[in-house]
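stuck on this:

***
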Amino acid sequence: MTFDLPRPALPTDVDDIHALRRSLEDWMAEHGTVQWPRGSLSRERIVAQVDAGEWHVVRDELGLVGTVRLLWTDPDFWGDDHTPAVYVHGLMVDRRAAGHGLGTTLLDWAAARGRDAGVDLFRLDCRTTNPVLRTYYERYGFRAVGQRDFDDFSCTLLERRVGGLS
């Protein structure tokens, strides 16, 4: 499988982004993966995030196949840390494309956006209850640098240099 580069999401992509998220929430629940609980991202939040230019999408002949949400600050998870960085949320790959490198392609693309913007750090998080995802990110070159605890879950904070392994 080959994939086009992500393009900015349009309002017409909102329903597909929401449907992909819901399908992955269901898949995770069915497979005992604790990352995104069912219904944890509303369509209304996606609308606001698309309007803010945060979502990017990849489509193929069958429809939406992957997404990534790109941010330049992330106070919800990283607090008052003002270190220049590119942040990724909402990295999603449709199950029909799993195992074909799209996740890595999306991470590479996000790192390149950070490099283009002149930042040195690439950051993301995953729930502490998801060791498989953490291992995936660590194989990509991220390293755990902290933890953020919320009332009902905790996240491992991970980062790497945009130009290579940190």
Summary: The longest strand covers residues 63-71. The chain has a mean pLDDT of 92.
